[in-house]
User: Which sequence fits this backbone?
């Protein structure tokens, strides 16, 4: 089993955790200096939103693959998707630069066991050969898959 995005869950948790810590420090400073009720409620509402975002990010899965399947794993579940059910591998417009390393977000569109289209988003570093290896494996099993390494704001 080869890793495609083994730290996907961590990458999705990083931003809300940093923003929560920043917002908590701002709330603490407001309580220290001069209490402004309106600003406190705005920041507290933002904190509630970030906590919701954090819990949604906990549901994200790390991605592994072999010659026949993609494995979507989190600590509670594992989903197995046949490479024949993958319809598209596509770059999204999202990217992050963290500590000098650029991360790109890709999307895999696939048919789940109920024959409904489903997607999984994952982060991968710019210049990583993991994506090329995965794409070669995917195209050898499923030659009809579309792989797009560009994105426009008009894409759905």
Assistant:
């Amino acid at each position: 089993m080869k890793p495609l995005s083994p730290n996907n869950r961590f990458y999705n948790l990083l931003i809300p955790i940093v923003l929560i810590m920043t917002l908590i420090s701002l709330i603490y400073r407001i309580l220290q200096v001069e209490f402004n009720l309106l600003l406190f409620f705005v920041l507290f509402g933002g904190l509630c939103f970030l906590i919701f975002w954090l819990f949604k990010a906990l549901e994200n899965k790390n991605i592994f693959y072999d010659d026949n399947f993609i494995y979507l794993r989190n600590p509670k579940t594992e989903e197995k998707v046949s490479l024949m059910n993958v319809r598209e591998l596509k770059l999204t417009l999202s990217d992050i630069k963290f500590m000098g390393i650029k991360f790109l977000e890709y999307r895999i569109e696939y048919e789940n066991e109920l024959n409904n289209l489903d997607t999984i988003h994952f982060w991968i570093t710019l210049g990583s050969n993991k994506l090329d290896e995965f794409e070669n494996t995917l195209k050898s099993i499923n030659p009809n898959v579309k792989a797009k390494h560009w994105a426009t704001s008009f894409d759905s």
